[in-house]
Design goal:
The protein is 44% helix and 13% strand. By secondary structure, it is of the alpha/beta class. It has one domain (29-356): Aldolase class I (TIM Barrel, Alpha-Beta Barrel), CATH 3.20.20.70. Strands 1, 2, 3, 4, 5, 6, 7, 8, 9 and 10 form a ten-stranded parallel beta sheet that branches. It is globular and about 60 Å long. The chain binds S-adenosyl-L-homocysteine and iron/sulfur cluster. Iron/sulfur cluster is lined by residues 60, 62, 64, 67, 69-70, 106-107, 139.
């Protein structure tokens, strides 16, 4: 049988080996983190790329059982940021040489929404001299919508599979055609066919999920040959059906630790993809995202959502609802990233090297 150190030197991993890595503690966990960093540097370099995150609407037609802005949560005040507010946030990103933005929202497939995004994409491109890269994260849409948005200027898309185990997926979503695992999988394939760099991911540490499930998630990312992954700890929200299982959860710190091990292990498995330091890490540990940067992640998504809307975009409890200036203060952000031993790829799109090689 291989030793832990021997497994770490591999390029391909069995499910059992992945479970072993995810289970590592103490010195072995340190070895895992060190090896992830060793693999990361030659594969994607030392730069961190910024994607300014604009959560432009919390109107959602879905009812995912874990999410604070699900349709049935009547406590949420629904909003849609105006074009001007969105363009202003994008302008901030452009002027501060963030390179890219992510436009994220609840799921809405109405023709008016689809058309609005088309126009917005064109305006963002126009007003940034075509320089700002645009990632979308607006849920499942038709192949035609994906195609149109791509043509209008979006070139990356984030759609987490949430769990690659169909049985588990069913447990955390309502049992109806709008929340079907097969549809989600198909959407990921449609995105690829439309020419996007595709990102997916999962929540880590939600009720009923095992380490074997997480190992399967990692193998799923590899099999799907994705370009980017964003994954973070599951965090309970009291106004959701899944809150009833909160007593079965690992502690937040355990979920955080597991999320870091997922990031490091994924870096070994897929050396040249982009891996985001998820915002949910920061909800558990103020320096959580920077910690992820030191053990394999290379993408950071500073929040550019207009402050007035932030408290209504609470996907989970304790979501950092930071004062804009503190989060974005260039010197602080730079200092924190330098402390993590990385440099910032100002003004660059920071596309997935994995995608470029295809
Ligand atoms: N509506 C789009 C994008 C917004 S939700 C979509 O669902 O794809 C973005 C991500 O937030 C989801 O993919 C999910 O993984 C994450 N999320 C939602 N509720 C969460 C929770 N309670 N804890 C951690 N992450 C959560
Ligand atoms: Fe809507 Fe996305 Fe939340 Fe599901 S996870 S309820 S699709 S915002």
């Amino acid at each position: 049988m291989k030793t832990f150190s021997e497994i770490l030197q591999d390029k391909d991993f069995t499910r059992e080996e992945l479970v072993l890595l995810l289970n590592s503690e103490g010195g072995e966990r340190q070895q895992l983190f060190q090896q992830a960093q060793n693999i990361k540097l030659p594969a994607v370099g030392n730069k961190v790329y910024f994607r300014g995150l604009v959560e432009f609407s919390n109107i959602c037609s879905k009812d995912c059982l874990y999410c604070g802005i699900r349709k049935s949560n009547e406590k949420v005040i629904r909003y849609e940021a105006s074009d001007d507010e969105i363009l202003e946030a994008c302008r901030f990103a452009w002027i501060n040489r963030f390179g890219s933005v992510v436009l994220q929202s609840g799921e809405n497939s109405s023709p008016a929404f689809v058309q609005r995004i088309n126009l917005l994409l064109r305006k963002i491109k126009e007003t940034s001299n075509n320089e700002l890269g645009i990632t979308l994260s607006c849920g499942e849409q038709s192949p035609e919508t994906y195609r149109q948005w791509h043509e209008s200027g979006a070139h990356r898309y984030l759609l987490r599979i949430e769990s690659s185990n169909p049985d588990l997926y069913r447990k955390i979503h309502p049992d109806n055609e709008f929340h079907s695992f097969d549809r989600r999988l198909q959407a990921l394939k449609d995105l690829k066919a439309a020419g996007y760099q595709v990102g997916t991911g999962v929540m880590i540490g939600f009720p009923f999920q095992t380490l074997e499930d997480l190992a399967d998630d990692l193998l799923f990312f590899k099999r799907l040959d994705v370009d980017m992954v964003g994954m973070g700890p599951y965090i309970e929200h009291e106004d959701t059906p899944m809150y009833q299982f909160r007593n079965q959860l690992k502690t937040k710190q355990q979920r955080f630790d597991l999320a870091l091990k997922m990031v490091a292990t994924l870096r070994l498995l897929m050396p040249d993809i982009n891996i985001a330091a998820a915002t949910a890490l920061q909800a558990i540990d103020p320096a959580g995202r920077e910690k992820a940067l030191t053990i394999g992640a290379n993408i950071l998504m500073p929040n550019l959502t207009p402050c007035i809307y932030r408290k209504e975009y609470q996907l989970y409890e304790n979501k950092p609802c930071l004062d804009e200036d503190a989060e974005l203060c260039r010197n602080c952000l730079e200092a924190r990233i330098e402390l993590a031993g990385c440099e910032i790829g100002y003004g660059e799109w920071g596309d997935s090297k994995h995608f470029s090689k295809k």
